[in-house]
Amino acid sequence: MPSKILVVDDEAEIADLIEVYLNNENYKVFKFYSAKSALECINTTVLDLAILDVMLPDINGFTLCQKIRENHTYPVIILTAKDGEIDKINGLTLGADDYITKPFRPLELIARVKSQLRRYKQYNPSHSPYEKKDIIAHADLEMDVNAHKCLLGGRPITLTPTEFSILRILLENKGNVVSAEKLFHQIWQDEYYSKANNTITAHIRHLREKLNDTLDNPKYIKTIWGVGYKIET
Amino acid sequence: MPSKILVVDDEAEIADLIEVYLNNENYKVFKFYSAKSALECINTTVLDLAILDVMLPDINGFTLCQKIRENHTYPVIILTAKDGEIDKINGLTLGADDYITKPFRPLELIARVKSQLRRYKQYNPSHSPYEKKDIIAHADLEMDVNAHKCLLGGRPITLTPTEFSILRILLENKGNVVSAEKLFHQIWQDEYYSKANNTITAHIRHLREKLNDTLDNPKYIKTIWGVGYKIET
DNA sequence: GGGAAATTATTAAGATTTTATTAAGAGAGA
DNA sequence: TCTCTCTTAATAAAATCTTAATAATTTCCC
After folding, report:
1. Do B93 and A73 touch (CB under 8 A)?
2. Which helix (H) or strand (E) holds B5?
3. The CATH homologous superfamily of the domain defined by B4-127
């Protein structure tokens, strides 16, 4: 399975150039010209590396990097036109793994990408392609994230996008409680959240219905009163 | 435990300078002016990172890097006077994790060191000296903060959010007395507190009930008269 | 030191508030 | 039109807080 790489740069020529070089190395590229459009990808796709430009029109690269770090540990390479030392140090401090100044030499970029991927995957068995999970399984539940399929005891059940996301997030945090607020923010980015909002509960109900979960003895989604929901390990 | 960093450079001033900066960050530095003398250290010491100059009198930095990679996976940063693209690409291809050209800015070097260590240790639990799990244990009590679980002698007991918070705060201050007022403020931020308020006491009672604590000889939550509550070490 | 008086803590039960579930239907978007 | 999402309102469940009575501990005055 080829590594999946996120590329975000508002200068289309540069993003396109990077894409060409990465494709040439057989990587799967997810290219975006704005941070906002990239955010959805970050929250729904299992990625292996991200290349972010700092100067984006909507959200800057540093912030985007932090957003990634909230839930992921794959390497992040920051690209920038500025060569300021402070900038570099900031970038690296905020969770980036490498910092490359424009204009860069494509082959060096590729070399740094390879180096980061080697560190991330080869030297770190838990991230290696063999154990890599685009398929999340738990008990007799099985989710194929890319295919957007969900099997319950071998039988397919149809989930709406939101239901799918909720179940995926809960499974990714298997064993830990996830608050309604966190679910909300993971799914709808940083929109306003209020406790009066009942949508998460509604979707949870639909999910439990489809999973045949009873409230008094739920097999999958447990309610932790006053805290959130969780799936037991 | 401070991270252990190998520094190899035949230019003594540079090696010494790096050592000063690294010591300043509380790293333990193993400094050598030649590759040969460094080799023994590589084979006998458990290191966390290596900074290697390319132009060494005896064995060049690339070779040294490969020697390290024969048995170790900790990050290697290559230093060089040359800014050639081919060199950089070679270095990164041969197993290095980063490549910095001289003259370099010390703070950038430090930032890159930190970034590499973060990747190596923090993002990769198997190398991390401390467990990442958020578990507080005391006697036959065990709290998993993320899972919002509490085990008493291996058996799960269900605590309400407030009870959970109180027990957590007491355990975090194990050995020290925590006043009712402090508990109150930790849990309900900076709301008004009055001694007439009996809520903390009520929750303490529920907690003791669930923990099977008797008042005359409490195993967990002791009352310090006129002061507060504490859990003995 | 002994013994009220004052202070502080515990207990228990039930009212209140908070939080979660349910169900049905309106609204948006394909 | 159909599915999905979100809202509303009613209901249910659980946790929290209050009250008041009781118990324990300290204070302090003789």
Report:
1. no
2. strand B4-8
3. Response regulator (3.40.50.2300)
